[in-house]
Amino acid sequence: MSPSLRMTGLAGAASCVGLAAMMFGAFPVAGQPSVQQVTSDTPEYCLQLLDRVSELVRVADTPPPQEVTSLSSEGQKMCDQGQTRGGILRLRRALLLMTRQNGQP
Q1: DSSP string spanning 53-101?
Q2: Residue 91 clears pLDDT 70, i.e. is over it
Q3: Mean per-residue pLDDT for 18-41?
Q4: What angle do CA 42, 75, 41 make, to 5 degrees?
Q5: Highest mean pLDDT among 30-34, 85-89, 100-104
Q6: In the chain, where are the structural domains located?
Q7: Can you give the pLDDT at residue 28?
Q8: What separation in angstroms does the CA of 91 have from each of 55, 77, 78?
């Protein structure tokens, strides 16, 4: 294999890596926060979500929708029973609904 062919292949591979890094967020985008929070499916994260939902419900001008109430109690119950992923999904959905109700982005 000739040296020029080898360099071309190396340059192509490097540009692919750079393109993939840009597509998948390795480089910060203008207006995007540079620090990202890593979350996991732990009981502690369940509690954090439940606290956030509870705080949004507390400060809301109107009572929460029935769906928020159901999702948050189901989520809490599932987290208490060790079904953290299912609990987190429900709590995230409740958080999203409350955020929208309160007019937050």
Answers
A1: HHHHHHH-SSPPPHHHHHHHHHHHHHHHTT-HHHHHHHHHHHHHHHHHH
A2: yes
A3: 57
A4: 15
A5: 85-89
A6: 1-27, 43-101
A7: 53
A8: 13, 11, 10
